[in-house]
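#structure-requests
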Amino acid sequence: MNRLSRAVLGLFAAPRVNMREDYGKVRRVQQRLAALTGPRYRTAYRQTVAEVAGRLVPVRVFQPRQKRRDDVLLFFHGGGWVTGDIESYTPACATMADLTGCVVASVDYRLAPEHPFPAGLEDCFRVARLLLEQPHRAGIGSAGNVVLVGDSAGANLAAAVSLMLRDRGLRTADRQILLYPVTHWDHDPLTSPFASVRHHGEDYRLTNTEVQDYFELYVPDPAERRNPLVAPLMATDLSGQPASLVITAELDLLRDEGEEYARALRAAGNEVRIHRVESALHGFIALPRFSRSLREAYEVIDDFLDGFPDKVPT
């Protein structure tokens, strides 16, 4: 990329906030923005709850304008396990439903630091189990194929849920779609094994410091951050996973660890497709529908849902 292009993209860099101190402010900004954009989407979803372990977990179910598939996409939002919710992700989920022709169920899992690991993961796991085994209790009704989907920290949760389902001998999801996932615990440019952490950790949408702050809030014990349910790349056994699509963004510090996880899944005998969206920034799934990065990603997702591995080359 030339210097002008880099300078323009640098305008989209995340505000340099101290997430450990300012996560509450970030949440309030997200809530205000959601209040401005939310009303236009109210006809696109219905609000329900899933009963899990004596708790009610909010779930927002989005219907596509034209239903083309019986798959249910169980979506876990991003936000570093600390920010984001079903309100702030409502536009992205409405877009996901329309562009895939699938029902999308978005889970409002508990957030850190009030609810550190594994609270949010347990919410996601239990809703996934309900949807797979008793969809009526998940507040969704009947379900055909179940596809785990997440972006960033949500993709981390999707990968961890998939591992938990296998390890506990339960029915696994039919497929999983991981959008620029967090899969490793170290994002210090001095010690990380990944070049993208060093090359893209300061200039653009997500920074090294921000990711490290998220980890400190989500998993306060540094030793626990190497747990495979926190850092799936640390898992010694990745066999028995569903057919997987891993989509990364070229200018994202998480790019290399996401692609490495996809290769590790493939090496363990799973069917995997890896797709990198060139010139894309972290978080592009929330961009407007006319965005080139967004539309490219959904072309790949549609191909994956239509018959991978038979129809889609790796």
